[in-house]
Amino acid sequence: MTDKTNEDKTKQEEVKNKDSSDENKKNNKKEKAVKLTVEQQLEKAKSDLLLSIADMQNMRKRTDEEIVNVRKYGASTLARDLFSVADNLRMAIMSITEQDKENNQTLKNLSFGLDMVVKDFYSAFEKNGIKQILPNVGDSFDHNKHQAMGEVETDEVEKGKIAQVLSAGYTLHDRLLKPAMVNVAKSISDDKE
């Protein structure tokens, strides 16, 4: 019986070892699966972090660009309000003729003072990146800078060219704030008698 008992014990130990070996294999598979999942989670976390960093950098760039644009074009609303003042001063100066200045010292002084104010206006505009668009009669019409208010029949200026300048236009750096208001020449009709 001892042999049989020893044999039984050996078989039992073999079964235990086999079970233990199977269990070890299962545990190793589980550990690998957990390890793989942890590695995948780590990769996903790294990827998410990199995307967040890229988003932050893009947002910072957009914010910097917006700050530059606000600094560059922030004066446009104030400038638009002042354009009519500058244009009215310019027209007031143009309404005083040389003969009026010669005959009336007060008008001469007024004209001189208005000239100084207008020069100061345009100097302040230029310091802040605002440039005046003041086309000449006979210049080509440019729809990017000029606004045609109407057509004028004339043979003094070529058809399609600027015949009259009604008011100046303005740009702020590279943006058009106000187009120059002009009348465009059209040919005098031959059928009018």
Shape annotation: rod-shaped
The percent range for strand residues is: 15-25%
Q: What's the N-to-C terminus distance?
A: 146 Å
Could you give the order of strands across the largest sheet? 1-4-5
For this structure, what is the CATH class of the largest domain?
Answer: Mainly Beta
What's the gyration radius in Å? Answer: 43 Å
Number of domains: 2
Helix percentage: 55-70%
Order of helices and strands: HHHHEEEEEE
- Total count of strands: 6
- Main beta sheet strand tally, sense and closure: 3 strands, antiparallel
- Secondary-structure-based class equals alpha+beta
Instruction: Kindly report the CATH topology of the largest domain.
Output: Nucleotide Exchange Factor Grpe, Chain A, domain 2
How many DSSP helices? 4
CATH homologous superfamily of the largest domain, by name?
A: Head domain of nucleotide exchange factor GrpE
Enumerate the spans where pLDDT stays under 50 for 5 or more consecutive residues: none
CATH 2nd-level architecture of the largest domain: Roll
What do the pLDDT scores average to? 84
Structure overview:
- The strands form 2 sheets. A 3-stranded antiparallel β-sheet has the order 1-4-5. A 3-stranded mixed β-sheet has the order 2-6-3, with no helix packed on it.
- The termini are far apart.
- The protein contains 4 helices and 6 strands.
- It folds into 2 domains: 1-73; 74-186, Nucleotide Exchange Factor Grpe, Chain A, domain 2 (Roll), CATH 2.30.22.10.
- The chain is an alpha+beta fold and 193 residues long.
- It is 63% helix and 17% strand.
